[in-house]
Amino acid sequence: MQEPAASIQALESGIAVLRLERSSRLNALSFPDLKFIRELLDRTLSDADLRVLIITGDGDGFCAGLNLKSMLDANGEMHATVRENMELQQTFAGLVQRLRDNSVVVIAAINGVAVGAGMALALAADIRFAAQEASFHVGAVKIGITAGECGISYHLPRLIGAGRAFELMLSGRPVASKEALTIGLVSDLTDRSELMERALQCARQIVGNAPYSTAHTKRLMWQNLDAPSLQAAIELENHAQVLGLMTADFQEAVQAFMHKRPPDFNGR
Hints:
Largest sheet: 6 strands, mixed
Number of helices: 10
Distance between the termini: 45 Å
Shape: globular
Order of helices and strands: EEHEEHEEHEEHHEHEHHHH
Radius of gyration: 20 Å
């Protein structure tokens, strides 16, 4: 029986890591792998105490996308129907949507190559840190399909600008870690040995804030990327801010400020 494709580990209070564990394949994932990870994510993200989820991979790959070999028969041919291919695509894309549609902050600790739908997983995270060895590949355009998959055509222009995104997606050229930092695709670079500690450092800062604050800041950021106007964005901000003023955690923050002590947030 094949080992599971991924595992979840609680690191500290409110912080967990999802680790992809197909290192011999650069963490490329088959259809059964995708379904397993989706179930794992559903269970993990339903934990009300979870505040930050770090995603990373074993070995030299973050995630090399779909394991194409798993789709081929003994003669190296693919015989999937349109319906089967759509189910596969929707399952992989569903992982991206699951990472976005929740209040848990997602940090991608990109340890190596991120290819195609694997790159899409990294783009769906709220924050990205990368090892020096990391690289990003939207190479599907080179194999007869489109570079737009699993939300790449949505996320990439918003992260690095439409002009750069068009060039990368139409050429299919790889982006090395240093360029990724320069263009804003990742927030920081580290040695691979220090990558998880960098992600943990950020996760601890997030967990140190009130749960309402981080959950609603994530929601505001993503929704206002598509706000039709400044007025609409401010309207959403106003509602979230007024609700925040009514929380016990805000009152605790005021008292902590007045008495010059760290706040003790409890999520109320």
